[in-house]
Description:
By secondary structure, the chain is an alpha+beta fold.
Amino acid sequence: MDHGWYSNLPEWLSSCPLYKCTNLQETNLHVIRGTVVIRRTLGQRGPGNSASIHLYSSTSIDPSNGKARLSEKANLRHGRKGKHNGENSIIYRIKFQVDPEFGVPGAFITKNHNNHEFFLISATLELLHHHVAQNRKFHFDCNSWVYPFSKTHCGRIFFSNACYLPNLTPEAIRPLREEELISLRGNGSGERKEWDRVYDYDYYNDLGSPDKGLEHVRPVLGGSEKYPYPRRGRTGRPPTQEDPSTESRPEMIKLDIYVPPDERFSTQKMSEFISNSIEAIIHFLMPEAKALFKNESSSFDSFEEIHDLYDDNNNNNPNKVLEGWVIEKLKKLVPQELLREMNNIGSKHHQVKFPLPQIIAKNEMAWKDDEEFGHEMLAGVNASIIKCLRKFPPQSKDGWKSNINAAHLEGNLDGLYLDEAMRQGRILMLDHHDYLLPFLERINTQEVCVYASRTLLFQRNNATLKPVAIELSLPSFEEGEVISQVFLPATTGTKASLWHLAKAHVVANDFGYHQLISHWLKTHAVVEPFIIGTRRQLSVMHPIHKLLDPHFKDTMHINALARSILINAGGILEKTLFPGEVSMELSSALYKNWNFRDQSLPNDLLKRNLAFEDEESPTGVQLLFDDYPYGADGLEIWNAIKIWVRGYCSIYYITDASVLSDEEIQAWWSEIRNIGHGDKQNQNWWYRMDTISDLVETLTTLIWIASAFHASVNFGQYDYAGYSPNRPMLCRRFIPMEGTFEFAEFLKDPEKYYLKMLPQRFEMTLGLALMEVLSRHTTEEVYLGQRSLEWTDNEEVHKEFKKFAENLKEVEKRINERNRNPNLKNRYGPAKIPYTLLYPDTSNVSSKGGITGKGIPNSVSI
């Protein structure tokens, strides 16, 4: 008789009567056998022989205690090294003997009696019964850390892949489902420890460090009418001494700021993140080192000096003096976790210059072109801001009208009168005016020079955009008054140079909005409350939890890192963006206008007058003009996501009443609205969540934000803004006024004046280093439509997901066709960068890592 995996047992054991009876024909006991897979990672160990598992029945209640029937324990012993879905793993064989009344396993509890944690990937059980022709298998997709029992003081429960709405949960495991959710919510007190698996909300009260002095004081964001904000994950650190409303920060910059264990980077991703960061920091420090040793000025004196920042493939090895200076500087700047990698710097080959960004790779001068300026409003990294102007002249909410008039424009509308161009929807506007004006006095005390800007663009017959007027405004000394200048396109002479300066100020505004609002606020910050609410209110057995889970990967961790080194007082964004110390206050002010319903791409396009309603269109809208790469590709991705979400929800929800009666979904939505986004709880645009349609729209919007929208604003950063003259992060000079000393300086050498207006070496190279890190894909990333099917055993779900993946492949084909169409001028622009930021990349090119400018990861994971 072939005993399969039992055949390796010692001969004396296989011959004993007790063992022989496991063929189930000589006993009434049933046998459940299976495998448990643990991740095997360098520097981390498995559970050894000190972990045990008990099974819970999903169909049988123990009459002695009224709870799910519990099996005897099985210990994890004698694991063997192997591979699981390409991962290095340790695989354990386990066996249980259970009474016939035990029924079907629905959950298991594991206790880790070792002194270190391990990562449990999955478990697969097989129920053997001699009366049944085919054995039954049960899969548990775990993907979670199991910490020592000595720290957690409780076992860890995992549920099988079976999905149930709350009212359909088998009675035996219903209490387990409820108890697990209660444990995840915690009690809202105490400082969280590494092993705590607790999800709770807090304000952004950890951005400042008032104990260090007034210059480090920052307002608490969230919980007030003045500073509304989404909530973040609670860490429970003690308050500062100077301000009890501000949470203290670690003394040293740390990469392991608390997030629940299952939200943390994997060891592989953390290693890549550290390596990429060190590489980028070296790129940042090398120009500083060279400037120090060459006694160069803090500004760039020529475009050649800027070009010298980039790899020329000729000389990547700094001299030993510079290399030593960089290493010593690194030791003072980077978190302790990075210091562990420092020993490898001397032995590894590090490219010491920045990689060449696409914006200057094929045409070094394209960035100066007005058409490229307009092209990036439709196909750059911030292509979701521009809108079609319906009323002229532009007007502020307080009634103040723009100084741009018809005479400014009509000589530049390709023969059209202004009213004709307006009727045809061919006047577009990039608006960075009203929201900036109230902050300018404070911002402009920080050694930066910032205007509020309005830019009007005209859509030519070939659908390309050309800027036709720029209005730059400053607050007047008289309250409520505004001083503005209007600049018009020119190609020669002084006016051309002034026009060039005006465009730089517009792009600096756009860059700041892109980083703080489009990127940070509208993806990273707004998604975190959804993650916390999902973990707290939706059981892992809930089908919607399983649907959303991949779209939350690593977001809480990257957000915690951002609070530690990017958006905090004195952080990288304050050092590189024009709002400086006002950055997060500005972000809070823009959150006042945030509307979840408008984050739907079709609704967003309608709001910006770049689409009109069309009942025959799959998305319900039709673009105002086809050659809008962000809009065209985005609507295809949106539609594919919505078809998938609708198909998935239809498997579990038959009627609208089933949504309304789903107590977990109702609690989830209530908590997100009233707590996670509590400062917006009274807005009337929230979905009611009483129909399948509301649920589908909500989930589609959330998945769109976390995957495609984030990809569109993140992974092109280096290619477009990696060359600072194309997208300066700030401007250090105003446009000079005639009759002033500055104007005379400008006339003498307009190019030098422009260079001195750009960020200084430190600011520019630090910003480039940040964008280089953020634009890189890691090798372990999982992309839209590429999820492993082990997360569910439902064959209907498998079919729907396969359709989703196929739909995305078809979208790729159409994107490639559009990029090859010579009539679609906005697909490339003068810089010859193809629009691929919404290209799903189902062929996994991006999975090799690096700056690819394509691929849509499932989540906000970098």
